[in-house]
Design goal:
- By secondary structure, this protein is α/β, with parallel strands linked by helices.
- The protein is 50% helix and 11% strand.
- It is built from 36 helices and 18 strands.
- The protein has a seven-stranded parallel β-sheet, sandwiched between helices.
- The longest helix has 22 residues.
- The radius of gyration is 32 Å and the shape is globular.
Amino acid sequence: MAEYAGNGDMLRDKLKEYFGFSSFKGNQEAVIRNVLAGRDTFVLMPTGGGKSLCYQLPALLMDGVAIVISPLIALMKNQVDSMRTFSADSGIAHFLNSSLNKTAVQQVRDDVMAGKTKLLYFAPESLTKEDNVAFLRKIKISFYAIDEAHCISEWGHDFRPEYRRIRPIINDIGQAPLIALTATATPKVQMDIQKNLGMSDASVFKSSFNRSNLYYEIRPKHNAEHEIIRFIKQNEGKSGIIYCLSRKKVEELAELLVANGIKALAYHAGMDAQTRANNQDDFLMERVDVIVATIAFGMGIDKPDVRYVIHYDIPKSLEGYYQETGRAGRDGGEGYCLTFYSYKDIQKLEKFMQGKPIAEQEIGKLLLLETVSYAESSICRRKTLLHYFGEDYTEPNCGNCDNCRNPRPRVEAKAEMKTALEALRDIGDKFKMDHLVNLLTGRTTAMIKSYGHNKLRWFGVGESHDERFWGAVLRQALIMGLIDKNIENYGLISINAKGEQYIKMPTPVMVALDHDYEEEEREAESIAPMGKGGAADEELFAMLKDLRKKVAKQHDLPPFVVFQDPSLEDMSVQYPITLEEMQNITGVGVGKAKKFGAEFIKLIKAYVEEKEIVRPQDMIVKSVGSKSGNKIFIIQSIDRKMDFEDIARARDLEFDELLTEIEGIVNSGTRLDVSYYIDGFMDEDKAEDIYLYFKEDAQSDSLDEAIAELGSDYTEEEIRLVRIKFICEQGN
């Protein structure tokens, strides 16, 4: 192999002959030469950088068979199919895993023994089987390639205990050089991989982790399903992946997308292997545009033109986030990485950790802290990500993330930076960032008390600023290289020589305040109360209110019985011009659309034509019937004249929750006969008084107004029940 290792022209000729490329990318050539020279090799290369070629080409050139250890059956099949396209002999690459029957296994072994096979793929579980070990001892192994090597480390985002057993098995089979490859590893994970594989002396080839074509954006998790549908419809025909943490959410979201005319399929580990394989193929063959998946999907999937990756739930670690977003734009083209973030999701993830070993919980919590820090920070996303992977990004503005395109206001923080560094110097290197923030803001936590830090002069010195401000200052200090995070004791921070120098000679520093997504969520709610996104067309809204008055008069009804305000608001956002579209408006079901819809549709259609309005059809989100079946159960139970208390108990609802469900049903136009329950529940005269109030006096369906008008003799439940009866009889 020396002739290839030392001769660039010969190597490039072979690259052209086997793979059709005329030149190598990045570190590929240096890596391949190292492998050909028989040295252990460690490759850190981002997704799309061409990792696979680093072992595929040497395998074709070297004597013997390269053993490739890979975590997913789908990934192996993908790679083997790909290798076979480069060779006339289909025996050139094989995999041995649990998906093969005995005949197929024998065929693989025959090809290997006959010298046809150059690459043999294994899952780590299959590698440990005795008959496989015995078989591998008989053949000449050129080298071992461990793909997705971050799976070895419990600090990695996809830890697999079976990866820890690879080194002992290799020792058992027979020595040969190792090449370990990963698209994501922090310095801590890198050390872990090398130590566990016994390759501390390996040549390390680290490419830049910067994917300049990817746009990173984080949005508050408000009405995420609607935003996702709108985003996909604005990017029609493009391929995308949506990640959710739970299988249930994957299925619900896929169903919702399909209901809204989007070609989407689900993918998660709970599905049978055949369905998963079919769904993956449909995505690769572009029979569907979108895959909604748990993280089981996408590892090593070679689809270069995924144009967007959406995280419905934020991942458990920044490595997971980097790996998953990295599946967008592998061809160097557009790649949009959109993540929905709410701190409530982080709290949910912390709950999932309960019951795990303490060490595992600690690691999990620290990885989550990094994720929170990234999400809430206003520093350039690219800079933060690359810093996490031990790489400096020196550009002041990447121009391709939300924080750089829409920078938040920045404040001068020279004095505060000096204070934070001095306080850190005094308390030493045994504490995490949140402890220092608690010290500066004067929060008396158990840890602050136990170390006596509430008696230090630094306690509460920065109380004029909040936690978010101090968090931003310390993150800026990390990015500037003034403090270090301890790799071995993950998360402990300490001041370094550069930080000491800053204390002596402080320089101006501008800090952008962190995002407060919970606040942004509330703002979003106040902008779009009916949850459909976008502001209402005020002129149309006024016209619809006038029409409602006219229709109400014709039917001798209060206007709110025809359509409630949120329905009119939604019409003035959605512009429905067919009966079907009208049925998708908030609070309008089939019954109401048929009874009152025609005149409203006519008005809206004329308005749209006159104003030449381009209707936001991408905003029409059709809901999928609730899996709980509450609605159907309640309607059927009331038809059977069941006692309301029994209905509530059967569905595990409080009485007022049941009334809310019933109100939702009747406000959408379904007629229910609730008289049988009212007759037994309350006095006939009281019921009549409330009914007359709504028919003759009420200006709106407001409960507060009704209580104020009717007085304390009438309970809230009584008023709600009669209001339901009134709307059913008069409006539906």
